[in-house]
């Protein structure tokens, strides 16, 4: 769920969930971006883009899994995003390059390489002052370079990313907090589905959580990549790829602990 106006977010939560639960749910809001192709007055945000060559520091090895190079899917320019994110971006990692196994690999290769393993997806930071365009080695696929505008939004979690202890609810009326959110916020739920987003909360529209929790609380969502027919990628039937990182790892700049998972219908 996303809102252009944080005040409107709080008002809607209170109206639909009641004062206490609404306040609790609104407190879970995170700042993020919808990544859209520039049109009209919109311009690309920094060096944010989908596809194209990677932006890596000299000497950085191209990531691979079992000898197979990954494909570059997106670059985020966190310097251009930092002002809106504020404390939600505890460090300034510069450029973030997002890699994944090519979704067009034959099924046999997917099974051999295990797309669910951590090595199938990588996030590599780079200093913008030193980064150079780096072409993918064969047989990795290079997607067309598409600059994107990062539109500032405030996001609420999908109902499946809400735990029972997060908000008060009537246990005689709802089987869990997810039931409350799904029932009362239903027509607002899933409005980032099918789109590319950064930070904030992912939209899963599934009964499978993306932002797992540990002692630090929910994992930090870095990037959501939807099926894109223009770019020519997809992850199964209406599939979406989500990159997340533990909160402590983000604060330490340890992007080696970032993970990704693909969900499809």
UniProtKB/TrEMBL annotation:
Domain of life: Bacteria
Alphabetized SUPFAM superfamilies for the sequence: Hypothetical protein YwqG
InterPro entries xref list: DUF1963, YwqG-like_sf
Record protein name field: DUF1963 domain-containing protein
Lineage: Bacteria, Bacillati, Actinomycetota, Actinomycetes, Kitasatosporales
């Amino acid at each position: 769920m996303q809102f252009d106006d944080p005040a409107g977010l709080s008002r809607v939560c209170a109206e639909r969930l009641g004062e206490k639960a609404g306040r609790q749910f609104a407190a879970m809001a995170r700042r993020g971006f919808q990544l859209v192709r520039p049109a009209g007055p919109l311009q690309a945000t920094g060096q944010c883009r989908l596809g194209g060559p990677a932006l890596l520091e000299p000497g950085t090895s191209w990531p691979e899994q079992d000898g197979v190079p990954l494909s570059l899917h997106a670059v985020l320019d966190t310097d251009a995003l930092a002002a809106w994110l504020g404390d939600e971006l505890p460090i300034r990692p510069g450029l973030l390059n997002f890699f994944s196994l090519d979704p067009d690999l034959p099924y046999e290769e997917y099974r051999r390489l295990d797309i669910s393993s951590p090595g199938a997806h990588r996030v590599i930071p780079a200093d913008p002052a030193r980064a150079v365009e780096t072409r993918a080695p064969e047989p990795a696929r290079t997607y067309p370079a598409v600059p994107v505008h990062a539109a500032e939004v405030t996001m609420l979690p999908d109902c499946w990313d809400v735990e029972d202890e997060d908000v008060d609810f009537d246990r005689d009326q709802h089987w869990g907090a997810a039931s409350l959110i799904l029932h009362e916020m239903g027509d607002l739920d899933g409005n980032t589905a099918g789109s590319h987003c950064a930070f904030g909360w992912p939209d899963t529209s599934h009964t499978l959580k993306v932002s797992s929790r540990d002692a630090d609380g929910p994992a930090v969502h870095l990037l959501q990549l939807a099926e894109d027919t223009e770019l020519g990628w997809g992850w199964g039937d209406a599939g979406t790829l989500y990159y997340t990182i533990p909160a402590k790892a983000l604060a330490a700049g340890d992007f080696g602990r970032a993970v990704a998972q693909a969900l499809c219908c």
